[in-house]
Design brief:
Length: 387
Amino acid sequence: MPKLSLSWPLAVQGRATCFAARTGLSIVNARDRQAILRRSDYRIAHASGAARLEWFQKKVPAVLSSLTFRRRFADLSDQDVLALAISSEEDDARIYRSFAERLRKDYPASAAVFDGMAAEEDRHRQRLIELHRMRFGEVIPLIRREHVAGFYARRPVWLSQSLTLDAMRGEAATMEKVAHDFYVRAAARTQDAATRKLLGDLAAAEAGHERHAQRLESTHLPQDAREEEDRTAKRQFILTWVQPGLAGLMDGSVSTLAPIFATAFATQNTWTTFLVGAAASVGAGISMGFTEAAHDDGVLSGRGSPLKRGFASGIMTTIGGLGHALPYLIPDFWTATTLAMIVVFVELWAIAWIQNRYMETPFLRAALQVVVGGALVFAAGVLIGGG
């Protein structure tokens, strides 16, 4: 086929090429292209509305898929469908095994469930390979999900190092639903009886995977094992996020009380007080974040990623300080100070609630510790600023 000028928009070149191929015309130069496009536009313009819609529905997806080098599902042969199913089952099995390997240390029972699901995908792949060998021979074409236009675009969540156990279970459920929908569509379009039967059986198997997963869980994940894994997951969440964040919130809420209120009562200038409070909060947040991330890599302590802990501690420190600095954006000194005191009261009670909720500290003891500590720092700031 003669080369088309790259200065032409690709969609226009594709429309001219498709029309020329359908009508038997040849493209030699730009004049021929323009004549072909005029004839194409004339036919479209003088067709009925239904005919125009049908033309675009047929031609536009074909042009777009040819430009992106992706096949439409409707254009796949039976061999392509089988090859796509084989690669999909192989990918799913590898994802399940990666989940199992990541969970094996802390959640051995759930790892066994994912191992069982991977083995089930292997059996599906073997059945598909046997059918392909019987119908088309030994050579299986390389075609994957990303090679088919309109196929479900799966985000590679399995590569994330922060994927939780619940997120893995949710991703597995999504994978099974997508596989079921694929087999239903594939079975509906094939004319071969054996292929149709196998694809229908696999669709039913994928639909029943939820029950299969429940059977695997009842075998490998009894109630006491699930409760133990849930406790482990909660403990990890507290060590990685709650504990550093709580330390940061306490530091930001309490330690910045003295400089903010000392500045407020010494100057009685709300803008100056806000600048001092913002600087103290941001500086304390940066310091706490770096300290938390640098002093423990989490390998021996099991406290998780230092980056996560650093972010949790730094951000909560900054929030704790800014909470009672922001009211000083109000020009009136006593209005701003009153509002800042109310914010301090809310912050201290929030800290007590978090300690009671996640650290299992008795609420009255937590409240007494936080309120007494905050009151001492607040008093120090007021006395220094007022003196």
